[in-house]
Amino acid sequence: MDTEQRMARETRAIWATVVCFLLGTGIGTLVLQGNPRPVAGDGSVGIPVAVVAGVIAAASFVVSTLLHRRGEHVSMPRWQVAISSLSAVALTIALAGVTALGVLLATEVLGVGLQGLELPALGGGMVTGVAGAVGGRLTFEAGIGLRTSDLANLLFSYLIIGTLFAMLTAADPRWWERNFSQLGIGAGAWAFNGTLVIAGILTATVGSYIGRDLHRIRGDAALARIAWVVVLWAATGLALAGVGLLSLERVVVLHNIVALSALVLFIAAGVMTTIVMPGPPRALLLTTAGTALLIIVAVLLAFVFDVYPVTALEAIVIGLALLWLTTLVRMLAVLTPAGTRTSARRSLLRG
């Protein structure tokens, strides 16, 4: 891509930002008509701003994808088009959720520092415009080109944002004495449970992109094994979403079973991906061994030596697992050639 093309792309991104700001300001002002509202809490601008910003971010991603990836599916077989389109839809939903939750966390933090501040309709509209512009700009860039490593980083960041927001809005301030699932109980349960649902969609999408990268490396000869990789990551995402949908408050046993299934499926998906990868790279094997060792040490410190509660152990294990996933997709990115690879197989099931 030459300088002129890069400049044209940046110009489009700037115009997209302007349009998102204007849309956000206009829609936000209309939605927030009436008495001035606080920044956070009951009856605040938080949820309306988050919803509008999320929708604008999703729309920006769709427009960017259609603009920059037009004709990408022309020579692909139907099954490959279907998988690519399904991944795009899932990613659109996930980006809307990520944007909305990011806005909600920002308003909660601002509410602490700006206690007593109330925004009229136009002021709330301007805030909505800024949120829409930021989210729209980022998702417009994502539509231009999104790597698997970008998605893994997004998943990592999103889980942190979602968990922080759930902590701030938790019904029980001493939830941490038991486990993270306690955040999914009570009036603010939707924050934590919703985070898990969107995280599940993101995990499945990461798996689809991993399959895409493996196909670019291995080609049609490895499609059967690649299909297993994608299915396992999709099952992991489904289980993670299930943890949020089947909250601890309603179905304790089923919630615990699904949570354990998500962990087992994550390990299975990671092992299968490593097997299908060329090599696999020595650095990845060392990272895997180191991660496993650290998890064993963390478990011993929690249950044998009683150094910290289960909640801390869960945070450590999840953090290490996501760091390992980040390493995996970055290694995969090094091996993956640029450009789309069209399959020569007319059917995924038959050669």
TrEMBL record:
This is DUF998 domain-containing protein. The lineage of its organism: Bacteria, Bacillati, Actinomycetota, Actinomycetes, Micrococcales. InterPro entries: DUF998. The chain crosses the membrane at residues 12-33, 45-67, 79-107, 119-139, 151-170, 190-210, 222-246, 252-276, 283-305, 311-336. Keywords: Membrane, Transmembrane, Transmembrane helix. It holds the Pfam family DUF998. The keyword Repressor does not apply.
